[in-house]
Amino acid sequence: MSRWWLLPVILGVALVGVVGMVGSVVAVGGSEAPQGLGPGGKAEITPLALQGRYLFGVINDDGLHYDDEWARGVRATTFELQWRLYEPQEGVYDTAYINFMKQSLARLKAQGWYVQLVPGYHYVPDWVFTKYPDVYYVNQYGERYDPDPATLGSHRIINAPFNPQARALIAGYIARIFQDFDPSSFDSVRVGGGIQGELRYPPPDWNGHTNAYWAFDSHAQNPAESGIPAQVVGWRPGVDPNPGSVGRGQLLVNPGFEQTHAYFAIPGWSPDDAITATLTTTNPHGGSRALQLTIGTPHRIHQFVRVSPGTTYRFGGWLRSADGVGRARVFFNQYDASFQPVAGAPFGVLETNATAWTYLTGTLTLSATTQYLKVEMDGHRPGTYFFDDLWLEREGETNHQDREIAVPLAFYDWYVQKLTDYQNWQIAEIRKYYSGQLDLLYAGKGLLPNQVTDALTNDLRGDGWSEGTSALYAAAAYDRHAAGLTTTQQVALYLTGVDEPAAHLVDDTSPYPSDWSAARWIAYLAQSRGMAVWGENSGQDNATKLRLSAQRMQANGFLGLMWAFESELYASPNPNGYATIADYEAVITLYNDPPHTVYLPLVVR
Question: Rounded distance, CA 428 to CA 422, Å?
Answer without folding.
Answer: 10
